[in-house]
## 1
Amino acid sequence: MSSNQAQHRAREILVRYCKRLPKIELHAHLNGSIRDSTLLELAQEHDQRGTISSYPNVREIILKEDRSLQECFKLFDVIHVLTTDHSFITRITKEVIEDFAAENVVYLELRTTPKSNVLTGMTKRSYVEAVLAGITKANLVLCENHQLHAHGIQVRLLLSIDRRETTDQAIETVKLALEMKSHGVVGIDLSGNPVTGNWKTFLPALTYARQCGLPVTLHCGEVHNPDEVEEMLAFHPDRLGHACVLQESQWERLHNLRIPVEVCFTSNLRTGCVKSICDHHFAWLYKTHYPLVICTDDRGVFSTNLSSEYAIAATSFDLSEHDLFELAKNATRFIFAEEPLKRHLDRIFAGVEPNYR
Ligand code: 6MZ
């Protein structure tokens, strides 16, 4: 076997292993995780209804390979035009869950920004209800095919606040999350274009969430903004998304705070938040036994999946299969869901551990 063939074979074995591994996904945006084929179908439907002006343009934007961070946010604007119907929201939720289940994700914390739209009669509440309907549909389909998904997939929801929103809109989202707690909403996320708005606008809403016992995760340090990073660390959220661009003293501070970090390799590389995989802060986090979890961010927008992200960790940082298993297993410590579910997930990992030593 040539060395190329051997490498190819080793890669195949690794990818198969990563797919088989039970995994926890804690940073996945619903509208960033839609299949390209579904987006194209929705675009065609809108084209026939005359609700988008140029199908070829939309198609080109959807299928573009490389995107800067700002181009990503242009794409999100396009996607949001395509997903304004309740039925579409239900459909994409169901498909996204099926896709994660198909690669052995056993717990998915899906996040999405509740949106209102006067034209389609959508309110933040009806948006979330459409998402919940998608979760129910996915559960039904997956139950019917339970032999394909030995451990099943538990889905919980985080409601996101977009950095373009106002304080009042953010508070509305937190109130909605509190009302929907019994339906599987387990926390709040602050996301959106990092060069837009001021995160302090959302501090009243985030503080309110915390006072009411809702965990909070913040997108932090996707771009150079040391003052914001400083303030976010002082707020001490329950988790941090990305945390790529920090100053020396802030890395030290983070190290002491031990706030779990949601790491998204492909997203960080594609958007240029991190120059190369060798420069990725995962190396430092991992070496120092820092609490972290590997995630996808936007599996559709970045054409990735959680198994590939684990494979990237293995090949780029020389991790063994057992190291990957430990990473996946430890992620249960950082979920926002209730304790009994944590114990259920721990049992899944304990049950399969002998196969992964
Ligand atoms: C910050 C991001 C993001 O909420 O409509 N989003 N926010 N940084 C990122 N890194 C690339 N990727 C996605 O999903 C899409 C929304 O998630 C946030 C943005 O607000 C985007 O509009 P939902 O389901």
## 2
Amino acid sequence: PAQCNLTGQWMNNLGSNMTISAVSRNGLFSGVYLTAVSATNKTIMESPLIGYQQLKGSPTIGFTVKWTFSDSITVFTGQCFINGKGRPVLLMSWLLRSDSDNIKDDWKQTRVGFNNFEKLPTIPI
Ligand code: BTN
């Protein structure tokens, strides 16, 4: 049966791009994230991510993106599936934490949402 291999390039429903490097034997992985959108008005730049996946066929996944161009952090969690067309997809929830200088503004610093990622086909050379 088809398996979910996280290593490679992914694009989500917002047009954001993510490249995941090799996954280690215990499920640890890292990569880079290029978001298509931002809650800030800063110039968007590539940002690092680090995460874990469980070691099974349709693994649950969690990763953190540390934005290089803003003071925010996003955590993603979800699962990889093989969809009806036989392609791997990541069905993810996310929390985006924005920075606040004032404890009184804590309540409004967390956005929540969902993203689905499709794997971009690798071009054989
Ligand atoms: C920021 O705005 O401070 C950093 C960029 C946040 C981008 C968010 S993370 C959740 C959602 N999914 C994406 O691919 N981009 C947005």
